[in-house]
Specification:
The chain has 447 residues and is an alpha/beta fold. The protein has three domains: 6-143 and 264-326, FAD/NAD(P)-binding domain (3-Layer(bba) Sandwich); 151-260, 3-Layer(bba) Sandwich (FAD/NAD(P)-binding domain), CATH 3.50.50; 340-445, FAD/NAD-linked reductase, C-terminal dimerisation domain (Enolase-like, domain 1, 2-Layer Sandwich). It has helices at residues 15-26, 41-46, 48-67, 81-106, 157-160, 177-188, 208-220, 311-326, 355-361, 377-380, 409-421, 426-431, 442-445; strands at residues 6-11, 31-34, 109-111, 115-119, 122-125, 128-137, 141-143, 169-173, 192-197, 224-227, 231-236, 242-246, 251-254, 256-259, 263-265, 298-300, 340-342, 348-352, 365-372, 386-393, 399-405. Strands 1, 2, 3, 4, 5, 6 and 16 form a seven-stranded mixed β-sheet that branches. Strands 17-18-21-20-19 form a five-stranded antiparallel β-sheet, sandwiched between helices. The longest helix has 26 residues, at 81-106.
């Protein structure tokens, strides 16, 4: 008789958990995965995919206006929120089905129930207890609501994808990527948007030039941004459905309040603390470079850890863990120079060090910066400007950071990220022939 029922039990069928399960099964491991919500996790079901679909929808408002600069006459426009929701739901249902098929084809047993850890080798799920040589926690994270009166009246990013109607006026609290993305989405779809943020400028942790540039662009679009401001309470309104009352005393009448105030790792109720699994101050699972926790048989990948909260990171970590445990190829993911994007309007993309980080690590830093009006808008008249920036280690000539705010920034930055990851120098960027006329060529012509 085998010592354990399974070789690997995965808790959480998001991007990291699914990839780890499939790779482990391909190596011959006996694998089961538990999920008490739709299969696909935050990214596929209530994050990256539906959010970008909404961002596409929102941008059409500007596209229709811009068409006039090129001789097009666009007729009467009308946006149907319910049609967008229905189309999004169909796509998410399709993806959920594909993820289930992928697990089934890989020979991974799907347990559609909440799972908890009983001991270092036992998991309880769906009324069953199963033993496993290894347990993987891949439960992701959840939006966090501030502990203020009336917080339950507000929504988070999870609920934003299922609103019965588009709010005419919405107050969004937060200054991170979720806040600025949904500010652009709701504004583009026709809502009046107020963003309240306790700091200044937006996007803490990003390069300061990026933060300032995006803030200016959002203000130009007509999004109302209140800095050094926090919501003290939310209550039912007399003239509007809700009133968001700020610490300053301001009262913001609105139809919806959205909290984009951060996320917390999904570790509550799993039983990890009882087993001695070390957690950080935010409740995230502490892991080493091989995704091992303080308990040898328990591992963790994805947003439930303190690693970059990005789907491709979770996928790579899950694959590497499975190869380490079952493929005889111990290896770890290099989390340096991980590219990322913010699908704001205009979008942001970045890889490597910010200027501020570089100046704390490198003796001599060179900064190359360019702002310009994109060719497209020379005919539309839209006042949107693009920012591109390279941060260079002057001693070695190596490009250690690249940043962009502007149309197609995420698509452009993926290629630039390869160069940064490989240690390309500014001289090698300069020696590369640009593709003209594009915005991307600025990265290889920047003086």
């Amino acid at each position: 008789m085998p010592e354990f029922d399974l070789d690997l039990f995965v808790i959480g069928a998001g991007s990291g958990g699914v990839r780890a399960s499939r790779v482990a099964a391909a190596h011959g491991a006996r694998v089961a995965i538990a999920e008490d919500r739709d299969v696909g996790g935050t990214c596929v079901i209530r994050g990256c995919i539906p959010k970008k679909l909404f961002a596409y929808a929102a941008h059409f408002a500007e596209d229709f206006d811009d068409a006039a600069g090129y001789g097009w006459t666009v007729g009467r426009r009308r946006f149907d929120w319910s049609a967008l929701i229905a189309a999004k739901d169909r796509e998410i249902a399709r993806l959920n089905g594909i993820y289930k098929q992928l697990l089934a084809k890989a020979g991974v047993e799907l347990v559609e129930a909440r799972a908890t850890v009983v001991d270092p080798h036992t998991v309880s799920a769906g009324g069953r207890q199963m033993s496993a040589r290894h347990i993987l926690v891949a439960t992701g994270g959840k939006p966090w609501r501030p502990p203020i009166p009336g917080a339950e009246l507000g929504i988070t990013s999870d609920e934003a994808f299922h609103l019965p109607r588009l709010p005419r006026r919405i107050v969004i609290e937060g200054g991170g990527y979720v806040a600025v993305e949904f500010a652009g989405i709701f504004h583009g779809l026709g809502a009046e948007v107020v963003v309240v943020y306790r700091g200044e400028p937006l996007l803490r942790g990003f390069d300061m030039d990026v933060r300032r540039h995006l803030t200016e662009e959002l203000l130009k679009k007509g999004i109302d941004i209140r800095f050094k401001c926090e919501i003290a309470s939310v209550e039912r309104g007399a003239r509007t459905p809700l009133v968001a009352r700020c610490v300053s005393g301001d009262a913001l009448d609105c139809d919806a309040v959205m909290f984009a105030t951060g996320r917390k790792p999904g570790t509550a109720g799993l039983g990890l603390e009882r087993l001695g699994v070390a957690l950080d101050a935010n409740g995230g699972v502490i892991v080493d470079e091989h995704s091992r926790t303080s308990v040898a048989s328990i591992h963790a990948v994805g947003d439930v850890t303190g690693r970059p909260q990005l789907t491709p990171v979770a996928i790579k970590d899950g694959a590497k863990l499975a190869a380490t445990l079952f493929g005889g190829k111990p290896s770890a993911v290099d989390h340096e120079a991980v590219p990322t994007a913010v699908f704001s309007q205009p979008p942001v993309a970045t890889v490597g060090l910010t200027e501020e980080e570089a100046r704390t690590r490198i003796l001599d830093v060179q900064v190359h910066r360019s702002t310009f009006t994109p060719l497209k808008h020379t005919l539309t008249g839209r006042p949107e400007r693009t920012l591109m920036k390279l941060v260079v280690d002057a001693g070695s000539g190596r490009v250690v950071g690249a940043h962009m705010v502007g149309a197609d920034a995420p698509e452009i930055m993926q290629g630039v990220a390869i160069a940064v990851k490989l240690g390309a120098t500014k001289a090698q960027f300069d020696a590369t022939v640009g593709i003209h006329p594009t915005a991307a060529e600025e990265f290889v012509t920047m003086a």
